[in-house]
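JOB MANIFEST
job_type = single_chain_structure
chain_count = 1
residues = 244
[input]
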Amino acid sequence: MRNLRLDICYDGTRYRGWQRLQGQDNTIQGKLEQTLSRILGEQIEISGSGRTDAGAHALHQIANFHCESEMPCRQILTELKRYLPEDIGIHSCQEASERFHARLNCKTKTYRYRVWNSDKPVVFDRRFVYCLPEKLDLESMEKAAEHFLGEHDFSAFCANKKMKKSTLRRIDSFQIHRAGEELIFTVTGNGFLYNMVRIMVGTLLEVGMGQREPDSIPGLFGAKREEAGYLVPAQGLCLMEVTY
């Protein structure tokens, strides 16, 4: 049995997220499994490094799957490019070690969130940014973001109220920078809870709008979801990198 690794990119606009859903065929995982099963002539199930939200995107999502087929990786890649829709792309397909697992072996993930901070029209990138014209205090947001570094209980930043597993996560870096009309949030950590990045960004935007103080962030660790900031829209979110 072979174990193959895929490096995937996608525009998640028209999909219900990464995870396969029963009775639904418009998920990234579901579309990949259908296509691979057709190409290889056997039932394929893939495991991704994580579940991106409905409407969110990925520049480098990693997945693996097992198969009996002896079709060369180069041919599999060619066939995937032939049959997948234009909004799902494959950077590479390669042999992986028998024990490699895209989710269980993951060390860090990096996400980017884009905010169009202007009242000017944003026609061509509208599917990839969150439009917020309000004036934002970048210095205050940067100060607030520093409090996220390290390991904390991020229960207040998780939208899953039935979460039974540990809500401890480690954030290695959190950077915010302005590029013209755009504000870009880049965060790296060892793992993220459901909607965690989007809630962290929403909380920082509230700081930027003067609705909460930068030094209020530590008081949110271990708190209830209602105490943290709002959930920003999914279209501004993109999984940028996964490390092993």
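[summary]
The helical segments are 28-40, 73-83, 138-146, 196-208.
The first helix runs from residue 28 to 40.
exit_status = 0
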